[in-house]
Amino acid sequence: MKVSDLIDQLGLTVYAGSDNLDKEITGGYVSDLLSDVMGNSKEGNIWITLQNHLNVVAVASLKELSCIILVKGIVPAEDVIEKANSEEIAVLGSSENTFELSGKIYQLLK
Amino acid sequence: MHIHTVLSPCGSLEMSPKIIVKSALDAGLDIIAITDHNSTKQSRIIKQLAEEEGLMVICGAEINSMEEVHCIALFEHDNELFQFQEYLDQHLIPIKNDPSFFGFQVVVDEDEMILEEEERLLINALDVDVISIERQVHQLNGLFIPAHIDRPFNGILSQLGFIPEKLKIDAVELSQHAKISSWIGCNKIPQGTTIIQSSDAHQPEMIGKAFTTLKMETASFDEIRLALLGQKGRSVSYKNKT
After folding, report:
1. Which tens digits make up the pLDDT trace of A79-91?
2. pTM value?
3. Which CATH superfamily is domain B17-240 in?
4. What is the CATH number of the domain that holds A16?
5. How far is CA B86 from its chain centroid?
6. Looking at the 3D structure of chain A, how many domains does it have?
7. Chain A residues contacting B, CB < 8 Å?
């Protein structure tokens, strides 16, 4: 499944990286601790988080994640959007909370 | 009391010892603390240079705990600083830095020659919780101050939602964006805790943008401790520099 398919299926908002939605998803990772994501996520994972700052983009780039999904209607900060666009990482949004969103995505990726 | 150098990956490459000392003196500061992310390695060089210029420098670090809470740790003596550096080396979760993503992490001498490059990403977390870190800092007679508690990320309040009762803090720090008046009497801060404000400078022009005024008999580590704890007539007052 590609990031674009996930967006269509769940009606996710695209905040950044609209040219980078073609990435293949390898799985998902849920964490709000950057150190945890750095240590344990895998390339191509979607990352579900509520953290909304520049280092989120840096970590996603470093780990070559397929996209970042912000939960609970969180809108990424301007500098996050800018950095995500330049790093070519999609930042998506959902109004749902982490538990519900993760559950839905888990089912879709199974 | 919170300044980064070229060693922090997010610290500008202009944050060299000479430029930091000059910027601090130009800003009218008497005392500064060098607090790179999870490392004390650049601090002593700056302290030595500053001594010649009449600026007091305290060596320390901005620690990132397991919960990703940032805290300032400050130390008086070299042996305490070295022991704490060993603790940091032992507990930093190792991830290799990629300078193209995070920035360079270099230790430089007074002439800005590179002495070493830190390979492990310093903005990563330690594998120990904030209370254990506090104990270690105090065991080494240091000062422990949760950093930028107003910030929506990496502050003790954003990460934990509260300041644990068991955590012995010497003060709390607000970022330069906060209005101190709105934090006085805040019920999330233990009663009587001193509030300081620092620049968290990552570029030279940020140095002195926020500072704290200490009322002390002399400029010494002990006096600073007394002022933060509000003991023996020493105290803290504060204002923003616009």
Report:
1. 999 999 999 999 9
2. 0.94
3. Metal-dependent hydrolases (3.20.20.140)
4. 3.40.1390.20
5. 17
6. 1
7. 33-35, 38-39, 51-53, 55, 58, 61-62
